[in-house]
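Possible regression after last week's pipeline update?

I re-ran a chain I had predicted before the update to compare outputs. Posting the input and the new output here so someone can diff against the archived version. Not blocking, just want to make sure nothing changed silently.
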Amino acid sequence: MSAEGNVRCVYRSPLTSRYASKEMAYNFSEQKKFSTWRTLWLYLAQVQQDLGLAVTSEQLQEMKDNLDNIDYDMATAEEKKCRHDVMAHVKTFGHCCPKAAGIIHLGATSCYVGDNTDLIVMRDGLAILLPKVARCIDRLSRFADEHKALPTLGYTHFQPAQLTTVGKRACIWLQDLVSDLDTLERRKKSLRFRGVKGTTGTQASFLQLFEGDHDKVEQLDVGVTKKAGFERAYIITGQTYPRKVDLEVLSDLASLGSSIHKMATDIRLLANHKEIEEPFEKDQIGSSAMAYKRNPMRSERCCSLARHLMALVANAQQTTATQWLERTLDDSANRRISIPEAFLTADVLLSTLQNICEGLVVYPKVVERHVLQELPFMATESVIMEMVKCGASRQECHEEIRVLSQQAAAQVKQHGKDNDLVDRIRSSEYFAPIHARLDSILDPSAYTGRAPQQVERFLREEVHPCLETYRAELSGTVSLNI
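New output (post-update):
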């Protein structure tokens, strides 16, 4: 097999070849990047014309007609000669726009197209992610509501604790995702354009173009910013926009990753108990050796990719910290990898999480069995209180229940048998006064506190309102190809 021209003979990122959505893959594609560069050159020329520079409508039309007409072979050849990607594309754009060639990139520096495009792509990436977060919240909120009153063992230190409900536990996951939605919304809204600033951020080249007219330089900056769809641009920049922006965006995405990792880990733990199971297709194989296995591979994938997403923040931290003075170029190669991978990974995580939430299965009988194994110990205080109401001594009752509890615990721990404390209480003459009420005393729903009410209030007051913006985008299911 010849390697030349065969995509299977070169490395491809699994993020795009296996997992990511088409819209997010396109958002970080060469076509999106370089057509946006050309669009920014067009915006610059349009506003320069509006402000009186010698730019003709014919030149603008020529640029507009060739925004997507990119000769990548020529651009590659030019970059190989000049070792400068922006100048290679200036020449390539000028080649198909001969009339406009002389005014393309007028007064600008490389970061005019490079940095502003990165900000546009990050803004658009957040716009892709936000409805996906909302869909995960919507699916999980339905699950929480459905199971809001189903008692289940709560765990602290991964040891059985007081009862909670399956729906209440889901709301713990939901609360993190609601916080992530709010954080990402605020981040998208706060993103600013680098704008038209020149080589070191002083706008000196544009001040020269407009012969010292500061107002026109300001109008140029504002005009291009508005055309690019931003409300504001940075007043102060060096050659680049602040690299702290990348750190903030990647930190927010990593926070989302940590939320998904926590939820997926919980599902994996509960799957081991056979209480909850993620979707499992009819022909899916859990193990090549152990045919009976039903591994939580989606949740495992979420944990795996979430770790990668969280680790990417360190790149942004280092890049922010090591920018010298107005700018150094050691940020460039790193950012070409870390920023796209952060968004692509978040995109994959959300698609996978939605798929999990849409097919999450609960096995109530298994949940009940685990509850009943621990509930008798949890109910001992209630047993004592009921006996005292019948006239028994609290201290005597405490000792009686302590002895029976230790005997039952020995059966569980030393002999591997079920918890038989209830049978021991029923067989004890001492506890005869409450035998008739034991079933009601041991009703699991009596030990879940206000969990169902908390779920209802949380969904009503915090979850449903945050989804209103996305109502038109909540439909549709996710099918995973791999």
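Follow-up from reviewer: compared with the archived run. The mean pLDDT is 92. Marking as no regression found.
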